[in-house]
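Annual report, structural modelling task.

Input specification for the adenosine-5'-triphosphate complex:
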Amino acid sequence: MSSVTFEQVSKRYGHSIAVKDLNLAIEDGEFLVLVGPSGCGKTTSLRMLAGLEEISQGNLYINGKRMNDIPARERDIAMVFQSYALYPHMSVFENMAFSLELQKVPKAEIKKRITSAAQQLEIESLLDRKPRQLSGGQRQRVAVGRAIVRNPAVFLMDEPLSNLDAKLRVQARAELSKLHRKLGTTFVYVTHDQVEAMTLGTRIAVMNQGILQQVGTPQTLYNEPRNTFVAGFMGSPAMNFLPARLVEQDGQLTVIGNTFTLTVPPDQRSPYAPYRDRPVIFGIRPENLHVPGFVPPGIQPLPFKATVSVIEMMGNELVLYLTTADRQEFNSQEPASQESTSQELIARVDPRAPLQIGETVEMVMDISRFYLFDPGSGDRLG
Ligand code: ATP
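The model returned the following structure:
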């Protein structure tokens, strides 16, 4: 039995629809991350689960019980808000004790639970302080502590790390991951940050414009994206997309792009064959583009020419912004594709590569991992 089930759940505000036909089953003990750009409906989904927002249509179940009409306080969930929502006039201890007192938990039990949570979160020395006497990171821990003491069936978290600086965020992320493993409880976590989603989620649900796009493990979403939205959203810098055409040429299925011609290996041909003679979007990730002299062994190389327009030194890699050369200029013997203007590409390459801005380079694409999408629907082909 899954611990949370959204069944055809929709949320309307007047005529606008914030969440449309959401079907999502979250298993017991999962760390499920809802991710997507601003306004995609992730917070609304979480708030419907919390009981803070009414469901317009569909059914919501927690541990098999329909929850649509059950008030928030009876849902056996605890929520950590982006703002932390700590009571400013109460001490840390009182903040953590508050909901337990409302539930009439005996005093000795409250003390025991708070002591244990405070130990886990290393905030024992802060229990007498007021929220204003805490740093941002400490406040975040107290907000998590207040959720832990309630022993909920499901933890809900809405961007709980977004008020922390970058370094603290990385640390707090690792702590949340550890906490999840230790508690073994279901976590449902909302973020707009795909790195946070990739590092925290045992599974990730990607939303866009109120519609769930894909659910899967971080690896599945990264390696097997269902459409251009997921492909472009997961991974930073984002996947490169280039217009191309799929044709049959000399008995071989061929992708003709602006600056490259790629023969689909015979063993990969069958999923793409029905799309022959159609325009497609060709997708390739920045780490699959290499500079000469730093091409890793064992790849399927395909050369193409591009001009370096920006170089970002990241320490462990260079991020290159490239402009592909026009087909007519470099490949005049090739048949001209429909698109003949140059394109922008991003590559993540070896930091030792001696490159200059403005230089034209014979880049190498590793086509052992490329993607083709339908330009109309954005769906991945094959
Ligand atoms: P963010 O990351 O910016 O918080 P989100 O993905 O969490 O975005 P939601 O807050 O769920 O998005 O909002 C989804 C859509 O519903 C948005 O278009 C938003 O404007 C709309 N919406 C949210 N709350 C209300 C409301 N109370 N009344 C009307 N429209 C709302």
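The CA atoms of residues 308 and 356 lie 7 Å apart.
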